[in-house]
Protein backbone atom coordinates (compact mmCIF):
# COMPACT_ATOMS: atom_id res chain seq x y z
CA UNK A 1 0.00 0.00 0.00
CA UNK A 2 1.49 3.33 -1.08
CA UNK A 3 2.10 6.23 1.28
CA UNK A 4 -0.10 9.27 0.74
CA UNK A 5 2.05 12.37 0.37
CA UNK A 6 0.53 15.78 1.04
CA UNK A 7 1.92 18.29 -1.42
CA UNK A 8 0.97 21.93 -2.16
CA UNK A 9 -0.99 20.72 -5.20
CA UNK A 10 -2.89 18.23 -3.01
CA UNK A 11 -3.72 20.98 -0.51
CA UNK A 12 -4.87 23.19 -3.35
CA UNK A 13 -7.17 20.49 -4.73
CA UNK A 14 -8.65 19.88 -1.27
CA UNK A 15 -9.22 23.60 -0.77
CA UNK A 16 -10.85 24.09 -4.17
CA UNK A 17 -13.50 21.55 -3.18
CA UNK A 18 -14.87 24.17 -0.78
CA UNK A 19 -16.10 26.06 -3.86
CA UNK A 20 -18.52 23.20 -4.45
CA UNK A 21 -20.20 24.19 -1.18
CA UNK A 22 -20.34 27.87 -2.09
CA UNK A 23 -23.90 29.19 -1.57
CA UNK A 24 -25.56 30.24 -4.79
CA UNK A 25 -26.31 33.90 -5.34
CA UNK A 26 -30.05 34.15 -5.93
CA UNK A 27 -31.48 36.25 -8.78
CA UNK A 28 -32.93 38.54 -6.09
CA UNK A 29 -29.50 39.11 -4.53
CA UNK A 30 -27.95 39.69 -7.95
CA UNK A 31 -30.68 42.27 -8.58
CA UNK A 32 -30.04 43.92 -5.20
CA UNK A 33 -26.31 44.14 -5.90
CA UNK A 34 -27.05 45.72 -9.27
CA UNK A 35 -29.45 48.27 -7.79
CA UNK A 36 -27.30 49.26 -4.83
CA UNK A 37 -24.09 49.43 -6.83
CA UNK A 38 -25.60 52.65 -8.26
CA UNK A 39 -25.52 55.64 -5.91
CA UNK A 40 -28.71 57.03 -7.41
CA UNK A 41 -30.74 53.86 -6.88
CA UNK A 42 -34.52 54.25 -6.99
CA UNK A 43 -36.12 54.04 -3.53
CA UNK A 44 -39.23 52.23 -4.78
CA UNK A 45 -37.10 49.57 -6.48
CA UNK A 46 -35.07 49.27 -3.32
CA UNK A 47 -38.12 48.83 -1.06
CA UNK A 48 -39.55 46.13 -3.34
CA UNK A 49 -36.27 44.24 -3.53
CA UNK A 50 -35.58 44.32 0.23
CA UNK A 51 -39.16 43.21 0.98
CA UNK A 52 -38.60 40.07 -1.11
CA UNK A 53 -35.74 38.99 1.18
CA UNK A 54 -37.20 38.03 4.60
CA UNK A 55 -33.81 37.91 6.36
CA UNK A 56 -32.67 41.26 5.01
CA UNK A 57 -36.08 42.83 5.73
CA UNK A 58 -35.80 41.72 9.35
CA UNK A 59 -32.27 43.09 9.65
CA UNK A 60 -33.28 46.44 8.15
CA UNK A 61 -36.23 46.74 10.56
CA UNK A 62 -34.05 45.82 13.55
CA UNK A 63 -31.51 48.43 12.48
CA UNK A 64 -34.19 51.13 12.15
CA UNK A 65 -35.51 50.26 15.62
CA UNK A 66 -32.07 50.13 17.24
CA UNK A 67 -30.66 52.65 19.69
CA UNK A 68 -28.69 54.26 16.83
CA UNK A 69 -31.85 55.96 15.61
CA UNK A 70 -33.49 56.40 19.05
CA UNK A 71 -37.05 55.89 17.84
CA UNK A 72 -39.92 56.67 20.25
CA UNK A 73 -42.34 54.54 18.21
CA UNK A 74 -41.46 51.24 16.56
CA UNK A 75 -40.81 51.16 12.81
CA UNK A 76 -42.86 48.37 11.26
CA UNK A 77 -42.52 48.83 7.49
CA UNK A 78 -39.49 48.47 5.22
CA UNK A 79 -40.34 51.74 3.47
CA UNK A 80 -40.41 53.62 6.80
CA UNK A 81 -37.19 51.89 7.86
CA UNK A 82 -35.41 52.91 4.65
CA UNK A 83 -36.62 56.49 5.10
CA UNK A 84 -35.24 56.44 8.67
CA UNK A 85 -31.88 54.89 7.83
CA UNK A 86 -31.26 56.80 4.62
CA UNK A 87 -30.23 55.47 1.23
CA UNK A 88 -26.49 55.96 1.78
CA UNK A 89 -26.35 54.04 5.08
CA UNK A 90 -28.84 51.41 3.94
CA UNK A 91 -26.85 50.84 0.76
CA UNK A 92 -23.75 50.00 2.82
CA UNK A 93 -25.64 47.90 5.36
CA UNK A 94 -27.70 45.91 2.85
CA UNK A 95 -24.79 45.15 0.56
CA UNK A 96 -22.46 44.18 3.39
CA UNK A 97 -25.07 42.04 5.14
CA UNK A 98 -26.23 40.34 1.94
CA UNK A 99 -22.87 38.69 1.31
CA UNK A 100 -22.40 37.41 4.86
CA UNK A 101 -26.07 36.34 4.95
CA UNK A 102 -25.23 33.72 2.32
CA UNK A 103 -23.17 31.98 5.00
CA UNK A 104 -25.50 32.65 7.95
CA UNK A 105 -26.13 28.96 8.64
CA UNK A 106 -22.46 28.06 8.56
CA UNK A 107 -20.14 27.71 11.54
CA UNK A 108 -17.20 30.08 11.38
CA UNK A 109 -13.60 29.69 12.45
CA UNK A 110 -13.12 30.61 16.11
CA UNK A 111 -11.09 33.75 15.35
CA UNK A 112 -13.16 35.04 12.44
CA UNK A 113 -15.58 37.92 12.97
CA UNK A 114 -18.44 38.53 10.53
CA UNK A 115 -18.77 42.06 11.90
CA UNK A 116 -15.11 42.86 11.17
CA UNK A 117 -15.49 41.32 7.72
CA UNK A 118 -18.56 43.44 6.93
CA UNK A 119 -17.04 46.68 8.24
CA UNK A 120 -13.78 46.14 6.34
CA UNK A 121 -15.53 45.17 3.11
CA UNK A 122 -17.96 48.10 3.11
CA UNK A 123 -15.29 50.61 4.15
CA UNK A 124 -13.00 49.42 1.35
CA UNK A 125 -15.87 49.56 -1.15
CA UNK A 126 -16.79 53.10 -0.06
CA UNK A 127 -13.23 54.39 -0.32
CA UNK A 128 -12.66 52.65 -3.66
CA UNK A 129 -15.82 54.19 -5.09
CA UNK A 130 -14.62 57.65 -4.05
CA UNK A 131 -11.23 56.95 -5.61
CA UNK A 132 -12.94 55.93 -8.84
CA UNK A 133 -14.60 59.36 -8.96
CA UNK A 134 -11.12 60.89 -9.27
CA UNK A 135 -9.17 58.19 -11.12
CA UNK A 136 -10.34 56.66 -14.39
CA UNK A 137 -9.92 53.00 -13.45
CA UNK A 138 -10.64 50.29 -15.96
CA UNK A 139 -14.09 48.89 -15.00
CA UNK A 140 -14.49 51.76 -12.54
CA UNK A 141 -18.28 51.32 -12.64
CA UNK A 142 -17.72 48.07 -10.71
CA UNK A 143 -15.73 49.79 -7.96
CA UNK A 144 -18.19 49.39 -5.07
CA UNK A 145 -18.89 45.69 -5.68
CA UNK A 146 -15.20 44.98 -6.33
CA UNK A 147 -14.30 46.56 -2.99
CA UNK A 148 -17.09 44.69 -1.26
CA UNK A 149 -16.04 41.26 -2.53
CA UNK A 150 -12.23 41.52 -2.63
CA UNK A 151 -11.80 39.52 0.61
CA UNK A 152 -14.67 37.06 0.26
CA UNK A 153 -12.01 34.34 -0.01
CA UNK A 154 -11.19 34.92 3.68
CA UNK A 155 -14.84 34.33 4.54
CA UNK A 156 -14.83 31.16 2.45
CA UNK A 157 -11.74 29.82 4.26
CA UNK A 158 -13.25 30.65 7.68
CA UNK A 159 -16.46 28.79 6.81
CA UNK A 160 -15.16 25.81 4.86
CA UNK A 161 -11.75 25.31 6.49
CA UNK A 162 -12.08 26.70 10.04
CA UNK A 163 -9.17 24.73 11.52
CA UNK A 164 -6.89 25.76 8.68
CA UNK A 165 -8.00 29.39 9.04
CA UNK A 166 -6.78 29.37 12.65
CA UNK A 167 -3.56 27.61 11.55
CA UNK A 168 -2.95 30.41 9.03
CA UNK A 169 -3.31 33.06 11.74
CA UNK A 170 -0.98 31.10 14.03
CA UNK A 171 1.64 30.89 11.28
CA UNK A 172 1.59 34.65 10.74
CA UNK A 173 1.96 35.21 14.50
CA UNK A 174 4.75 32.69 15.07
CA UNK A 175 6.81 33.01 11.88
CA UNK A 176 5.97 36.54 10.86
CA UNK A 177 4.80 35.23 7.48
CA UNK A 178 2.58 37.40 5.32
CA UNK A 179 -1.05 36.35 5.26
CA UNK A 180 -0.82 35.43 1.57
CA UNK A 181 2.25 33.25 2.12
CA UNK A 182 0.74 31.58 5.19
CA UNK A 183 -2.42 30.75 3.23
CA UNK A 184 -0.40 29.24 0.39
CA UNK A 185 1.67 27.18 2.86
CA UNK A 186 -1.36 25.87 4.79
CA UNK A 187 -4.00 25.37 2.08
CA UNK A 188 -2.10 25.67 -1.20
CA UNK A 189 -3.95 28.78 -2.40
CA UNK A 190 -4.50 32.34 -1.15
CA UNK A 191 -7.66 34.26 -0.34
CA UNK A 192 -7.29 36.62 -3.32
CA UNK A 193 -7.43 33.75 -5.81
CA UNK A 194 -10.28 32.14 -3.87
CA UNK A 195 -12.19 35.43 -3.96
CA UNK A 196 -11.84 35.59 -7.73
CA UNK A 197 -12.97 31.97 -8.13
CA UNK A 198 -16.03 32.57 -5.92
CA UNK A 199 -16.92 35.73 -7.88
CA UNK A 200 -16.61 33.71 -11.10
CA UNK A 201 -18.95 31.03 -9.70
CA UNK A 202 -21.44 33.80 -8.93
CA UNK A 203 -21.13 34.91 -12.58
CA UNK A 204 -20.18 38.49 -11.77
CA UNK A 205 -18.08 40.54 -14.19
CA UNK A 206 -14.49 39.76 -15.15
CA UNK A 207 -13.50 43.23 -13.92
CA UNK A 208 -14.65 42.34 -10.39
CA UNK A 209 -12.91 38.96 -10.61
CA UNK A 210 -9.54 40.38 -11.67
CA UNK A 211 -9.76 43.19 -9.10
CA UNK A 212 -10.01 40.53 -6.37
CA UNK A 213 -7.42 38.17 -7.87
CA UNK A 214 -4.72 40.83 -8.22
CA UNK A 215 -5.39 43.14 -5.30
CA UNK A 216 -2.26 42.07 -3.40
CA UNK A 217 -0.04 42.28 -6.48
CA UNK A 218 -1.65 44.84 -8.79
CA UNK A 219 -0.06 45.93 -12.08
CA UNK A 220 1.81 49.22 -12.31
CA UNK A 221 -0.22 52.42 -12.95
CA UNK A 222 -0.99 53.16 -16.59
CA UNK A 223 -3.10 55.58 -18.61
CA UNK A 224 -6.11 53.41 -17.68
CA UNK A 225 -5.10 51.82 -14.36
CA UNK A 226 -6.55 48.48 -13.37
CA UNK A 227 -9.23 48.42 -10.67
CA UNK A 228 -7.07 46.01 -8.65
CA UNK A 229 -4.63 48.88 -8.08
CA UNK A 230 -7.38 50.89 -6.41
CA UNK A 231 -8.50 47.89 -4.33
CA UNK A 232 -4.91 47.34 -3.19
CA UNK A 233 -4.47 50.89 -1.88
CA UNK A 234 -7.99 51.25 -0.46
CA UNK A 235 -7.64 47.91 1.34
CA UNK A 236 -4.27 48.86 2.87
CA UNK A 237 -5.51 52.26 4.00
CA UNK A 238 -8.65 50.79 5.61
CA UNK A 239 -6.41 48.35 7.50
CA UNK A 240 -4.31 51.32 8.65
CA UNK A 241 -7.48 52.88 10.11
CA UNK A 242 -8.01 49.73 12.17
CA UNK A 243 -10.94 48.35 10.16
CA UNK A 244 -9.33 45.02 9.36
CA UNK A 245 -10.82 41.56 8.85
CA UNK A 246 -8.11 40.41 11.27
CA UNK A 247 -8.36 41.38 14.93
CA UNK A 248 -4.84 42.84 14.62
CA UNK A 249 -3.91 43.78 11.05
CA UNK A 250 -0.45 42.69 9.93
CA UNK A 251 2.05 45.56 9.46
CA UNK A 252 2.65 44.67 5.79
CA UNK A 253 -1.07 45.08 5.07
CA UNK A 254 -1.23 48.67 6.31
CA UNK A 255 -0.57 51.99 4.57
CA UNK A 256 -0.49 55.31 6.40
CA UNK A 257 -1.47 57.38 3.37
CA UNK A 258 -3.72 56.90 0.38
CA UNK A 259 -0.98 57.96 -2.02
CA UNK A 260 -0.76 55.84 -5.19
CA UNK A 261 2.70 56.21 -6.77
CA UNK A 262 2.41 57.28 -10.38
CA UNK A 263 -1.12 58.65 -10.05
CA UNK A 264 -2.03 62.22 -9.09
CA UNK A 265 -5.41 62.83 -7.47
CA UNK A 266 -6.83 65.09 -4.71
CA UNK A 267 -6.13 62.80 -1.76
CA UNK A 268 -7.42 65.27 0.85
CA UNK A 269 -10.75 65.64 -0.97
CA UNK A 270 -11.19 61.88 -1.23
CA UNK A 271 -10.42 61.35 2.45
CA UNK A 272 -12.71 64.21 3.54
CA UNK A 273 -15.58 62.67 1.54
CA UNK A 274 -14.74 59.24 2.95
CA UNK A 275 -14.84 60.56 6.52
CA UNK A 276 -18.36 61.90 5.93
CA UNK A 277 -19.51 58.64 4.34
CA UNK A 278 -18.09 56.36 6.99
CA UNK A 279 -19.14 58.11 10.23
CA UNK A 280 -21.87 55.63 11.15
CA UNK A 281 -20.37 52.47 9.62
CA UNK A 282 -19.22 50.83 12.84
CA UNK A 283 -22.69 51.23 14.34
CA UNK A 284 -24.46 49.60 11.40
CA UNK A 285 -22.93 46.17 12.04
CA UNK A 286 -23.17 44.97 15.60
Overview of the molecule:
- The chain has 286 residues and is mainly alpha-helical.
- It has two domains: 24-102, no CATH class; 107-281, Orthogonal Bundle (Hypothetical protein af1432).
- The chain has 16 helices and no strands.
- The protein has helices at residues 8-16, 27-36, 43-51, 54-64, 78-85, 87-101, 114-134, 143-149, 152-160, 162-175, 179-187, 191-201, 206-213, 227-240, 267-278, 281-284.
- The longest helix is centred in the middle third of the chain and has 21 residues, at 114-134.
- It is globular and about 60 Å long.
- The termini are far apart.
- Residues 1-5 have low confidence and may be disordered.
Secondary-structure arrangement, i.e. CATH architecture of the largest domain: Orthogonal Bundle
CATH superfamily of the largest domain: Hypothetical protein af1432
Q: How many structural units, i.e. domains?
A: 2
Terminus-to-terminus distance? 53 Å
What does the average pLDDT come to?
88
Largest sheet properties: none
Secondary-structure-derived class = mainly alpha
Question: Judging from the principal axes of the Cα atoms, what is the shape?
Answer: globular
Portion of residues in beta strands equals under 5%
* Residues in helices, as a percent range: 55-70%
Series of H and E elements: HHHHHHHHHHHHHHHH
Number of helices: 16
How many strands?
A: 0
Q: Could you name the ranges where pLDDT drops below 50 across 5 or more consecutive residues? A: 1-5
Radius of gyration: 19 Å
CATH topology of the largest domain: Hypothetical protein af1432
CATH class of the largest domain: Mainly Alpha
Amino acid sequence: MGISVITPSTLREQTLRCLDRLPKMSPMLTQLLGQLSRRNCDIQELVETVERDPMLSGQVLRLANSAIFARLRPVSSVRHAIAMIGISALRKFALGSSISNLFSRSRMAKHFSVRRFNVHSVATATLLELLSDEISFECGHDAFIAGLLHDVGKLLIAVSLPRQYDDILALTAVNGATLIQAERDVIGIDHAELSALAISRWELSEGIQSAAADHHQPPEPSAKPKLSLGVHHADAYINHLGMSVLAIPLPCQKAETLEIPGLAFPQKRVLAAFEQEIQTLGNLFH
